[in-house]
Amino acid sequence: MAQAISSIWQGITYRGRDGHYAWMIHRVGGLGILLFLFLHILDIFLIGLGEETFNDFLILYTHPLFKIMEMALLFGVFFHAFNGVRIILVDFWPARFSNWKAQRTMFRLVVLLTVVFFIPAAIATVAPFFNISLPWWPA
Ligand code: HEM
Ligand code: HEM
Questions:
Q1: Which architecture characterizes domain 17-128 according to CATH?
Q2: Does residue 74 line the site of ligand 1, with CB under 6 A?
Q3: pTM attached to this predicted model
């Protein structure tokens, strides 16, 4: 246990900059999506038990804590998808993509794409919570 805590601590405090942050967010994101998938399998399964049971369970997702977790899920999904493509490029074409300059450009692009996709998705996710209707998003 002490060893596990120490290695997690080392993983957080290691000063590896871009590549290290990408690795950490990718891993936490991947595991987060997987955890959500388990819950999601349960909620979709409940449709089979009738509309009332399903709707009763879905009330859980309207809780503020779940809204925050939904934000984290959105960010994790976008980052994992874009960063995953970056990793694939480096893995398959190392001669072209593994030099530091390409790595830096790709990391910046990953962060940019993640933010550009995350912001409107995050606004659409919290808007109903504050009773705001968005002209560009179906109610
Ligand atoms: C908060 C975001 C999400 C919402 C609101 C959502 C909603 C839904 C709904 C309503 C269905 C049932 C569709 C149907 O049977 O007609 C579904 C199915 C499914 N979702 Fe999601 N989902 C979300 C995120 C995700 C994520 C992140 C994953 C992947 C990790 C995922 C994986 C799946 C799978 C595998 C199915 C079953 C597909 C099927 O049976 O055809 N979902 N989702
Ligand atoms: C656009 C879709 C996706 C892409 C392009 C993608 C890409 C990748 C790549 C390239 C890796 C290897 C990382 C490495 O070598 O360090 C990886 C790891 C992983 N992915 Fe995905 N992935 C996607 C979707 C998902 C989904 C939907 C889940 C969860 C249900 C997931 C869970 C994981 C996990 C748990 C790891 C291991 C992380 C680690 O060992 O650090 N991924 N992904």
A1: Up-down Bundle (1.20)
A2: no
A3: 0.90
